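Example 9 (inverse folding). The structure is encoded as follows.
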């Protein structure tokens, strides 16, 4: 009967939702957030992206995908889409520079990006992948849930999305460092929380 994750008791509805959503998507960690935009921003912060870094985003997406890099001081680099209306992996590869830190493929209107090719490009160039799954809650690619294939996945639960709570979002990841950085970034009071002593980041 408690929505807020911190006040009293062992379990909150927020905490239960995080555990259930992570299990559904197939990741170790989830952070419930205020929006899909917040999930993208928090994901980039969790990946250590900051001023001077570049983030590749597709030309066809909602503006939040390009605004998120700006929110952490990075530069969004617009890349072409292919006939699926999602990020063209070959075009993204051509946009990579020494300053590129993250590629954000967007699973547009439920259509999955070519994650095999995008992950291959990312691994070849040692950059991270933050999946924007805000328009594809629950979708799959190659037997894996969208949002669980890259280094992290961002989800939206606003009024127009597949699952709605009016407004809301979540960041999912298997990477403990991304999770802990995101947890700190999303909550200015995190140093006072019960879990503060468990958080370790390099």
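The amino acid assigned to each position is listed next.
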């Amino acid at each position: 009967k408690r929505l807020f994750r911190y006040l009293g008791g062992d379990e909150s509805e927020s905490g239960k939702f995080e555990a259930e959503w992570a299990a559904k998507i197939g990741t170790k960690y989830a952070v419930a957030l205020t929006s899909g935009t917040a999930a993208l921003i928090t994901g980039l912060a969790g990946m250590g992206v900051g001023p001077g870094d570049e983030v590749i985003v597709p030309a066809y997406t909602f503006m939040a995908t390009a605004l998120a890099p700006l929110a952490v001081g990075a530069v969004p680099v617009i890349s072409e889409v292919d006939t699926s209306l999602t990020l063209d992996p070959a075009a993204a590869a051509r946009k990579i520079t020494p300053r590129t830190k993250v590629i954000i493929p967007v699973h547009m209107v439920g259509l999955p990006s070519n994650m095999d090719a995008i992950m291959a490009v990312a691994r070849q160039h040692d950059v991270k992948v933050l999946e924007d799954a805000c328009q594809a809650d629950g979708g799959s690619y190659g037997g894996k849930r969208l949002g669980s294939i890259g280094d992290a996945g961002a989800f939206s639960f606003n009024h127009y999305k597949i699952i709605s709570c009016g407004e809301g979002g979540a960041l999912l990841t298997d990477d403990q460092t991304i999770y802990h950085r995101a947890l700190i970034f999303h909550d200015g009071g995190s140093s006072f929380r019960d879990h503060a002593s468990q958080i370790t980041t390099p």
